[in-house]
Amino acid sequence: MFAMRRAVVGVARRSPSAARMFSAAGPSKTNPEIVGRLADDTEQATGLRADELEEELKGHERFNRSMLYVPTLGTKDDPTLIPSACDDRIVGCAGGCTPDAPAWLRWFVVKAGDTPTVCPDCGQHFKLDPVAAAAPLQ
Description:
Elements: H1 2-14, H2 16-22, H3 41-44, H4 47-58, E1 80-83, E2 88-93, E3 106-111, E4 117-118, E5 125-129, H5 130-134
Parallel strand pairs: 1-5
Antiparallel strand pairs: 2-3, 4-5
Helix pairs in contact: 1-2
Protein backbone atom coordinates (compact mmCIF):
# COMPACT_ATOMS: atom_id res chain seq x y z
CA MET A 1 0.00 0.00 0.00
CA PHE A 2 2.83 2.36 0.88
CA ALA A 3 4.56 1.70 -2.46
CA MET A 4 1.32 2.47 -4.31
CA ARG A 5 0.91 5.73 -2.39
CA ARG A 6 4.50 6.75 -3.17
CA ALA A 7 3.94 6.03 -6.86
CA VAL A 8 0.72 8.04 -6.94
CA VAL A 9 2.26 10.97 -5.07
CA GLY A 10 5.27 10.93 -7.41
CA VAL A 11 3.04 11.00 -10.49
CA ALA A 12 0.76 13.64 -8.95
CA ARG A 13 3.69 16.01 -8.39
CA ARG A 14 4.58 15.87 -12.07
CA SER A 15 1.07 16.19 -13.44
CA PRO A 16 -1.91 17.97 -11.86
CA SER A 17 -4.33 15.90 -13.99
CA ALA A 18 -2.84 12.71 -12.51
CA ALA A 19 -3.78 13.91 -9.02
CA ARG A 20 -7.42 14.15 -10.12
CA MET A 21 -7.22 10.74 -11.79
CA PHE A 22 -6.10 9.01 -8.58
CA SER A 23 -8.33 11.04 -6.27
CA ALA A 24 -11.04 9.18 -4.36
CA ALA A 25 -12.51 12.20 -2.66
CA GLY A 26 -15.90 12.30 -4.30
CA PRO A 27 -18.49 10.28 -6.17
CA SER A 28 -18.01 9.02 -9.70
CA LYS A 29 -19.00 11.50 -12.41
CA THR A 30 -20.90 8.83 -14.34
CA ASN A 31 -22.57 7.18 -11.34
CA PRO A 32 -22.94 9.29 -8.18
CA GLU A 33 -23.92 6.21 -6.13
CA ILE A 34 -20.35 4.86 -6.33
CA VAL A 35 -18.60 6.35 -3.32
CA GLY A 36 -15.70 4.70 -1.53
CA ARG A 37 -15.74 1.49 -3.59
CA LEU A 38 -14.67 0.22 -6.96
CA ALA A 39 -17.29 -0.13 -9.67
CA ASP A 40 -18.03 -3.67 -10.80
CA ASP A 41 -18.06 -4.87 -14.42
CA THR A 42 -21.74 -4.12 -15.04
CA GLU A 43 -21.29 -0.50 -13.94
CA GLN A 44 -18.24 0.31 -16.04
CA ALA A 45 -18.47 -1.93 -19.11
CA THR A 46 -19.04 -0.32 -22.50
CA GLY A 47 -19.58 -1.48 -26.07
CA LEU A 48 -19.62 -5.20 -26.81
CA ARG A 49 -18.66 -6.10 -23.25
CA ALA A 50 -21.72 -4.21 -21.94
CA ASP A 51 -23.92 -6.06 -24.47
CA GLU A 52 -22.39 -9.36 -23.38
CA LEU A 53 -23.07 -8.67 -19.69
CA GLU A 54 -26.68 -7.63 -20.40
CA GLU A 55 -27.31 -10.84 -22.35
CA GLU A 56 -25.66 -12.86 -19.57
CA LEU A 57 -28.10 -11.39 -17.03
CA LYS A 58 -30.97 -12.49 -19.28
CA GLY A 59 -29.53 -16.01 -19.42
CA HIS A 60 -28.31 -15.79 -23.03
CA GLU A 61 -24.81 -16.24 -24.42
CA ARG A 62 -23.77 -13.24 -26.59
CA PHE A 63 -20.61 -14.81 -27.95
CA ASN A 64 -20.23 -18.52 -28.49
CA ARG A 65 -17.29 -19.66 -26.36
CA SER A 66 -18.48 -23.16 -25.69
CA MET A 67 -17.01 -26.11 -27.47
CA LEU A 68 -18.79 -27.78 -30.36
CA TYR A 69 -19.66 -31.35 -29.48
CA VAL A 70 -19.82 -33.59 -32.54
CA PRO A 71 -21.30 -37.08 -32.00
CA THR A 72 -20.05 -38.46 -35.34
CA LEU A 73 -16.89 -37.91 -37.35
CA GLY A 74 -17.11 -35.65 -40.36
CA THR A 75 -16.57 -37.39 -43.68
CA LYS A 76 -15.83 -36.04 -47.14
CA ASP A 77 -19.50 -36.39 -48.11
CA ASP A 78 -20.86 -35.20 -44.74
CA PRO A 79 -18.28 -32.86 -43.09
CA THR A 80 -18.61 -31.48 -39.57
CA LEU A 81 -20.11 -28.00 -39.93
CA ILE A 82 -18.34 -25.24 -37.97
CA PRO A 83 -20.38 -22.05 -37.39
CA SER A 84 -18.43 -19.02 -38.60
CA ALA A 85 -19.34 -15.66 -40.07
CA CYS A 86 -15.71 -15.15 -41.15
CA ASP A 87 -13.68 -16.60 -44.00
CA ASP A 88 -11.69 -18.81 -41.64
CA ARG A 89 -11.81 -20.16 -38.10
CA ILE A 90 -9.32 -21.87 -35.81
CA VAL A 91 -10.54 -25.33 -34.83
CA GLY A 92 -9.17 -27.73 -32.24
CA CYS A 93 -9.68 -31.41 -32.99
CA ALA A 94 -9.37 -33.76 -30.02
CA GLY A 95 -8.15 -36.55 -32.28
CA GLY A 96 -8.22 -39.93 -30.61
CA CYS A 97 -10.57 -41.01 -33.38
CA THR A 98 -8.13 -43.67 -34.50
CA PRO A 99 -5.77 -45.79 -32.39
CA ASP A 100 -2.65 -44.15 -33.86
CA ALA A 101 -3.89 -40.53 -33.35
CA PRO A 102 -2.12 -38.49 -30.66
CA ALA A 103 -3.91 -37.71 -27.37
CA TRP A 104 -3.56 -33.91 -27.60
CA LEU A 105 -5.56 -31.22 -29.37
CA ARG A 106 -4.54 -30.51 -32.93
CA TRP A 107 -5.19 -26.86 -33.85
CA PHE A 108 -5.61 -25.83 -37.46
CA VAL A 109 -7.43 -23.28 -39.61
CA VAL A 110 -10.63 -24.20 -41.44
CA LYS A 111 -11.11 -21.94 -44.47
CA ALA A 112 -14.33 -21.09 -46.29
CA GLY A 113 -14.96 -22.84 -49.58
CA ASP A 114 -16.39 -25.98 -51.10
CA THR A 115 -13.42 -28.20 -50.18
CA PRO A 116 -13.54 -29.44 -46.56
CA THR A 117 -10.46 -29.11 -44.35
CA VAL A 118 -9.10 -32.44 -43.13
CA CYS A 119 -7.61 -33.02 -39.67
CA PRO A 120 -4.05 -34.27 -40.27
CA ASP A 121 -4.24 -36.67 -37.30
CA CYS A 122 -7.59 -38.40 -37.53
CA GLY A 123 -8.86 -37.56 -41.03
CA GLN A 124 -12.05 -35.88 -39.87
CA HIS A 125 -13.47 -33.36 -42.40
CA PHE A 126 -14.56 -29.84 -41.39
CA LYS A 127 -16.39 -27.11 -43.30
CA LEU A 128 -17.48 -23.60 -42.32
CA ASP A 129 -21.22 -22.92 -42.03
CA PRO A 130 -22.24 -19.22 -42.26
CA VAL A 131 -25.93 -20.11 -41.80
CA ALA A 132 -25.30 -21.63 -38.35
CA ALA A 133 -23.25 -18.58 -37.38
CA ALA A 134 -26.18 -16.25 -38.17
CA ALA A 135 -28.61 -18.29 -36.04
CA PRO A 136 -29.15 -17.13 -32.45
CA LEU A 137 -27.30 -19.05 -29.75
CA GLN A 138 -29.29 -21.47 -27.66
